[in-house]
Records
---
Amino acid sequence: MSPQETLASASLTSSSNDDSIELGRRAAAALARLKQEFREGRGPRFLHMTHARDDLPTLEREAEALRARFRHLVVIGTGGSSLGAQAIAGALAPGRVSGGYGLSFLDNVDPEAVTRALDALDLDTTGFLAISKSGTTAETLALSFAVLDRLQKGRATDHVRFVVEPGDSPMRRLAARLGASVLDHDPNLGGRFSVLSLVGLLPALFLGLDARGLRAGAAEAMARTFDAGDVLPPPAEAAARLVALAGTHGIGTHVLMTYGDALEPFGLWWRQLVGESLGKDGKGITPVTARGTTDQHSQLQLYLAGPADKFFTVLSATAPAVEPRFGRGLADALGVAYLGGQSLGSLFAAEAEATARSLLEYGRPVRRLTLDTTDARTLGGLFMQFMLETVITADLLGVNAFDQPAVEHGKRLVIEMLGGVKS
Ligand code: PA5
């Protein structure tokens, strides 16, 4: 099923319609502006990535060269320079392994975890891709140093590649010192909106995944949103609803509950997108991720009967019907006849549905998204749906979706604390 049918079939219901007409009108206007800007070749860069094709042959060649040399690729980077690739690999390559190639991520400077991760690698067959838009992020530089420390001298040139925006930066200088290859990060593309650029696609191509399908799915979702006519399309409708609920009901938390471990990294990508894009000027919507079914036994009590301050999206993928069914005899004998003839997949689907229904029956605002397939096109559409939703929400809140001034403050403090120059 295409993302269009999937997303169009998603219902968005709420306990309140307050302000929604006015916010719907403003969301439609924000969407119209985005569309106009896009048609004029302006506007957010991530919209234009959907139609970019020129870069793909280069990326495919780069990926082929990496695959010819290595069996495993470690992506070094943090935030928007890592989470998109994690989301793609998680959803499309279970276990982050595909066709004999593996992908892993160094995105945290926890020394113990880094040492363990590096110890586990076969350095002869492992390549490293260090990604930092700014080329200045201390964590990514430090992780690169840790990797270089492991590689024998002379090996770094061959084993490490960099993605960084043009212009002088510590990471550019490092690449030049090593004589290592560098690919340009688009300077107009913010980290958390970069999933459809080389940042997400090069690691995906290393695993042999369908980068063109990801972009095509995103382009289709964008076209459906832009060409919805008089109907408020899902990203604009959800943005209006979220802002209405936040304004009139104090519902300032958005819980994304994913059913399917493959979708968990997508949830983390989404959490960063919403958190960093909207949390500024005293405004924002707090994104929370939850894992179905596990968190039904951890968080659901709170969600149903605790403070009514949350909006819910229940996202699930239809499980392929490959697993065995539970025997009726055993189920009957144990007094759990309802499990007889069922499978993990049918139980999983029922649990997702039951969670969404319970939330609704407890009067919680809930949206249900069901993916019939988890392929590159569907995933690309989902990325676009949530990027558009976030940008329109930012417009309605009156904040700039594309900066993160408070994070920059923290980055400066780290430099100061380590005795670097205060900037
Ligand atoms: O979305 C963003 O802009 C941030 O999360 C960045 O991706 C993150 O801070 C890493 O920055 P950089 O890619 O410059 O190393």
---
Amino acid sequence: MRAFRCHRGPPVSVSAASVTATGTLYVVATPIGNLDDISARALRILREVALIAAEDTRHSIRLLQHFGIATPLAACHEHNERDEGGRFLTRLLAGEDVALISDAGTPLISDPGFHLVRQARAAGVRVVPVPGACALIAALSAAGLPSDRFSFEGFLPAKTVGRQARLQQVAEDSRTLIFYEAPHRILECLADMREVFGADRPAVLGRELTKTFETLKGLPLGELHDWVAADSNQQRGECVVLVAGWQAPEGDEAISGEALRVLDLLLGEMPLKRAAALAAEITGVRKNLLYQVALERQKDA
Ligand code: SAM
């Protein structure tokens, strides 16, 4: 007899013969560029499991070959994850260990794996994280922006209207904001951030982290946009954008009662963005500041 803890409820005693131990699903982080960043534990687990569920088997085979690992691979990507998850579950429930990896970094972080992990946990399978590289954490750890509280926003919508709308939702968040972005959209993305957060908001671009041409450039958003625009090399490779959180205005930045009255009058007559722009022209207060205040007033209304 041995103690057995099922996934809900207290430990129960069962006879060994009646227990079929399930396998373990290991969620294994792989490098985001520099292959030396893989952990010794990750390598051992990738060697020992019965099967590796990989986002792109053709991509991962190169990583495994580099480390001399011959474990069989099977595809687990966003298009088959829901339907094919059962295939991995069957193996796990039969007692085999499976490792989940993505093309780079930590699975599930803007990568496939969520459905499989959820299904495995629901079926009572033990799910074990094997931590390692993650672009957002690597960038945050070296960006010099407040790291005590942050919000990971993943990828923004591809088109300006959707992107600006999403940015507006977090414009008043006081936490450091972290975004993933594709290189061919980095300039438009920085332009929209400048528009919504204001040109003065501190930001950091983390590009090609852990690779040969690693860049971590910190500048106010307006200057960062211009710096990237002036150098096409900065528009290549993989990037993370970090933006300092919103800070409530103080002292000289405080808005006078008169400026607020103008803003409120205009808000009653026209869309928010236009009202903030016009109020800025009339009162001389910064447009972005009025925009943030207008957002707050609309929320409170
Ligand atoms: N799962 C990964 C992780 O843990 O970071 C992220 C996968 S997501 C599909 C890919 C995005 O992550 C890229 O478009 C980029 O925004 C970011 N990224 C990945 N590797 C990076 C690197 N070496 N430097 C900067 N950003 C990177």
